[in-house]
TrEMBL record:
Keywords: Hydrolase. Gene3D superfamilies: Zn-dependent exopeptidases (3.40.630.40). This is N-formylglutamate amidohydrolase. One of its GO terms (molecular function) is hydrolase activity. InterPro entries: N-FG_amidohydro, UCP029730. The keyword Hydrolase applies. It comes from the Bacteria. It comes from Roseicella frigidaeris.
C-alpha cells in the first residue's frame, strides 16, 4: 500500500563502525485495516506498543559512532521482532496487563501473513548485512537499542539503564562497568531481564549463533522523553561502547 512505512529502514548504510545497531521496537505504527488491534489510542502511546524514545536514541547513536542502523517500521503488537516465532509473546494476546483484542484467536494464516510482512523482511535484512560484513572481514558487534518502562506490573525498576547479553559475557560486563563509572547511574547487569533463547531473538540468533559479540542496550523510558535525554544517553552510550568494544 502506497504511503505505508517500510518494514525495515537502513540508515547510514556505509557507516564504518564495527557496531551494527538494531531497533526492533522503533515504531508504534499499525496499518488501518487492523483498526488499532481494538485498542484505545492511548494504549498505542505506551511501552506495550513500542520502545519509547528508542528510535531517536538509536539515530543519535548511529551518528556518533558512524554505525549502520536498522529501524523497524511497525508496532511490536503486530509481531514482536525480538521474540522467536514460537514464543507466546511473538503475537501477544496480553501485554503487561492489557488485553490485545485484535491478537486473540488469530489463525495460522494470519500469523504467517504477519511473519511474512514484518518479521522476515527485518531479519533477512539483518542477516544479509551480517553476511556481507563477515565476508568482507569487517569486525562486527551487534547492538539492539531498547527502552523499558519504569514500573512493570506494579514493580518499580531502579536502574537507569541495563545491559543484556547471552554468550558475550566479557563484552557485556565491560559495557556494564563502563556505564557504571558514569556519575550517578544505576546500571543493570542482565536487568531488567535476562536473555533466554526461548524468549529472545536478536542476541541468540544474530549474535551468539554467529559467534559475534551482541547485547541489548535498555534505557529507562522516562529518561528518553525529549531531545536532551536522547542526546545525553547517546553521548553516554557512545563513550561506553568505545571503551568496551575489543580492539
Amino acid at each position: 500500500m502506497s504511503g505505508m512505512p517500510a518494514p525495515v529502514t537502513l540508515c547510514n548504510a556505509g557507516g564504518g563502525s564495527p557496531v551494527l545497531l538494531l531497533c526492533e521496537h522503533a515504531s508504534n505504527h499499525i496499518p488501518p485495516e487492523y483498526r488499532d488491534l481494538g485498542l484505545p489510542a492511548a494504549e498505542l502511546q505506551r511501552h506495550i506498543a513500542y520502545d519509547i524514545g528508542a528510535a531517536e536514541l538509536a539515530r543519535r547513536l548511529s551518528a556518533r559512532l558512524d554505525a549502520p542502523l536498522l529501524l523497524a517500521g511497525y508496532s511490536r503488537l503486530l509481531i514482536d521482532l525480538n521474540r522467536p516465532l514460537a514464543a507466546p509473546s511473538s503475537i501477544p494476546e496480553i501485554s503487561e496487563a492489557t488485553v490485545i483484542p485484535g491478537n486473540r484467536g488469530i489463525d495460522a494464516a494470519e500469523r504467517a501473513r504477519r511473519q511474512a510482512a514484518w518479521f522476515v523482511p527485518f531479519h533477512d535484512c539483518v542477516a544479509a548485512l551480517l553476511d556481507a560484513r563477515i565476508a568482507a572481514g569487517q569486525r562486527t558487534v551487534v547492538i539492539g537499542v531498547h527502552s523499558f518502562t519504569p514500573v512493570y506490573l506494579g514493580q518499580r525498576r531502579p536502574w537507569h539503564a541495563g545491559i543484556l547479553y547471552g554468550e558475550a559475557r566479557g563484552f557485556g560486563t565491560a559495557l556494564v562497568r563502563a556505564l557504571a563509572a558514569e556519575p550517578g547511574l544505576v546500571i543493570g547487569d542482565n536487568e531488567p531481564y535476562r536473555i533466554e533463547a526461548a524468549m529472545d531473538y536478536t542476541v541468540p540468533v544474530h549474535g551468539d549463533a554467529r559467534g559475534l559479540d551482541a547485547v541489548l542496550l535498555e534505557v529507562r523510558q522516562d529518561l528518553l522523553g525529549d531531545a536532551a535525554g536522547w542526546d545525553a544517553w547517546a553521548d553516554r552510550l557512545a563513550r561506553a561502547l568505545r571503551q568496551a568494544i575489543p580492539r
